[in-house]
Amino acid sequence: GSAVAPDAAPGPGSVSDGQGTDAAPGLSVLVVSYNTREMTLACLTSLLSGTGAPLEAVVVDNASSDGSAEAIRAAFAHEPRLTLIAEAENHGFARANNLAAARARGRRLLLLNPDTVVLDGAVDRLLDFARARPEAGIWGGRTLFADGALNPSSCWARPTLWSALCRTAGLTGALRGSERFNPEAYGGWRRDSEREVDIVSGCFLLIDRPLWDRLGGFDPAFVMYGEEADLCLRARAFGARPRISPDAVIVHHGGASETARADRVARILRGKAGVIRRHVPGLRGRAALWLNRVWPLTRWAAAALRGALPGRGATARGAENAAVWREVWRRREEWAGGW
User: Fold this and answer.
1) Around 326, how many Cα atoms within 13 Å sit in the side-chain half-sphere?
2) pTM of the predicted model, to two decimals?
3) What is residue 314's predicted lDDT score, i.e. its pLDDT?
4) Which of 146, 206, 243, 256 has the highest Cβ tally under 10 A?
5) Are 208 and 145 in contact (CB under 8 A)?
């Protein structure tokens, strides 16, 4: 792939190819898009119009078939802060972000999903937070769904044997508000206070460039899902202490590039298996991997049971969910070993 720019040489009034001689900005925002044209346009508009800090945006389009690259080029033809890299193949999330980072010039990198909307100067607030807590090395914010409800996926705790057991036994689903039984999601914490966390989600993740370079960026073995968990856990080994700020708020729709639910669940489980394999040692790790493998079977059984209960709505939803989990279980050899 190559940087895409109009026929004229890049400069004011054009989509830049990122090779200009301007002073390097303090922040490079990396956006990887795949078949999310309208959401990507909304994301970039909110970022560029709602951020006061000097920045560059480096957008990698992963061979979208919905005209995303062409739409970005047209919409931001007069935006010199934006670099578009239109790829002829889908590299996945990890490789595409590494490609964007290689082009970026900023002292800090902000990973931003294309299915997000920046609210209330969220990027400026996150930069202020990073300046106030430099020891963290990695920073994140608070994410909401489009209706304003909390989207808790802005951060996670590391996977453990206990968290795998709770999930497979159904305790996580039944007791979502309990941090003891829903430990990976920090159950009960509404992301409304500052806190150190194990993992900041790649949908809104700020990292110092020297730390990113020391880590080698994302491990490209993680094609999609699990890459930010692996990055953050490796960063913690180097002394980073990722933190979340409640003041930097974005909308994150979630899962917009994947419409087939079974495919998405299979990839999530594959990413989780990869993280467990690398970061949960010994017998605990092997047991956690087994529980991760069995989890879809227990979900299938629970969904099938709910589908058999009285009530047409419950029956339909239960049957639909059972079909998804049955499909994921049938494909277990595809994802159980991780990336």
Assistant:
1) 10
2) 0.90
3) 58
4) 206
5) no
